[in-house]
Amino acid sequence: MKTNLLLTLLGLSLLTMVSAPALAHHGNAAYADTFTEFKNATVTKFAWTNPHSLIDFDVTDAKGKPMHIVVETGPPSNMRLIGWDKNSLTPGDVVTLRVYLAKTGNPAGRLNKIILADGTELHDTNLGGDAGGQSSYNPPSK
Amino acid sequence: MRNSIVTSLAAALALLVVAHVDDHAQRGQGVPEPLISQGVLKMPNPPGPAPKRDLSGTWVGPRAGAPEDNTAKADPVPPMTPAGIAAFKDRKSYGAATRRGADVPKEGVSNDPFITCDPLGFPRDLLGHAIETRGGVVFASAPDRTLMAYEQQRVWREVWMDGRALPKAVDVKGAPESRYYGYSVGHWENDNTFVIETTGVDERAWLDEEGHPRSSAAHITERYVRTDQYNMNLTVTVDDPKYYTKPWTWLRGHYYWRKDQQVTEWFCIPSEALDYRDRLSRPSGIVDAR
How many CB pairs under 8 A join A and B? Predict the structure, then answer.
């Protein structure tokens, strides 16, 4: 069943698989090495929480079947430093998400980045593609 | 000519902006922490001298490794005693649970107590996630004590400076109970070096992110050396003969002065942590079902 779900996800016409590094401070053996892109996804919940924030979204596959997926991001303390805040996402926002899906086949994953309707891009802290490395500590100015 | 006027005006405007930010910072009016890409707020260069016998204020850190020596690292964890090995064998760290590689013996699940927001305890709280993202600690004083308030979980420690002795034992008849943050006493070794000694910790808390144990009899020494107005180094040593074959330097870290002097909230909230565990960690195979 879980395998079927994963295969369904991978088979969606709206998806594209792109090779990208999947590195994080916790490691990510649980997640795929490549991200999956979901277009025209609707945010249903944005939990600005520790230890990781969660984004819930609905998306429809090529056959019109609705799906619900939850993805994790870094914690608020990290995300603030790369431009996120508690109001970055609102339920109802239509967005594009790049997600490293769980290898278990469950509808869960780790965010790579999210593209808002106005084109603004928000990256994750650890798997954030273009933002890679920018969430690390900066030494004090001397 | 026109270019030079424009340049001059721009420079003057920039100075005004900087002066405005500095003014607010000095009055503690909440200059927001800049984004990573914008760097850390500038401090006077060079910093002034360290005030004598005074750590009071808000600091960011500790970050492992002093800024002048980023290669400074803690010593490796020494070999454990049989009792230590027994206490460690069932610990499954979050990192090990999710780390890739055949050499990770406990891959697959984690039983890190912090997954459900159990107290980090001392000294693991020094390694809190918020520390790496400009979180920190407030040093303050009260009669006969130094107080240390940590951003992560908003926990605080009480370091007695009235000459009292540390408990010789805990959790035995006539002795006090063990505590997650132990019992601490402190003294000034010189005008810039503050030394804290701690014992009597609750063994349920992990020593570090890997899940190493520390016994309630462990003797943990923190040495804070304020090197100037805005910088402070920390060395932490652990002496725990019950679980380890020798003492070692567990942390070499650095703090810097937080310009806005404010701390944010960083809570692990059980209801949110359980939501994360049940809706994401378990479906993704990161944590077990305890």
Answer: 127
What kind of architecture, by CATH, is found in domain A2-131?
Answer: Beta Barrel (2.40)
The single-letter DSSP state of residue B132 is G
Q: Which two tokens stand for residue A12?
A: 């969606």
Cβ–Cβ < 8 Å for B273, B103: no
Give residue for tokens 């590689």: B101
Reduce the DSSP state of residue B94 to 3 states and report it.
helix
Interface of B with A in 160-199 (CB under 8 A): none
Tokens linked to B251: 């942390």
Say if B256 is an interface residue toward chain A (CB within 8 Å): yes
pTM of the model: 0.77
Domain boundaries, chain B: 2-28, 57-284
CA-wise closest residue to B286 among A43, A106, A129: A106
Q: B42, B56, B204: which is closest to B142 by C-alpha?
A: B56
CA–CA separation, A13 vs A36, rounded Å?
Answer: 11
Q: How far is the alpha carbon of B162 from chain A, nearest alpha carbon, in Å?
A: 35
Tens of pLDDT, residue by residue over B171-229, are 999 999 999 999 999 999 999 999 999 999 999 999 998 899 999 999 999 999 999 99
For residue B130, give the nearest of A26, A77, A134 by CB distance.
Answer: A77
Domain boundaries, chain A: 2-131
ipTM metric: 0.72
Both tokens of B15, joined, read 């100075």
Residue of A nearest to B47 (CA): A142
Q: How far A122 CA lies from chain B's nearest CA (Å)?
A: 13
State whether A135 and B284 contact (CB < 8 Å). Answer: no
Query: What contacts A8, CB < 8 A, 6 or more positions away?
Result: A61, A65
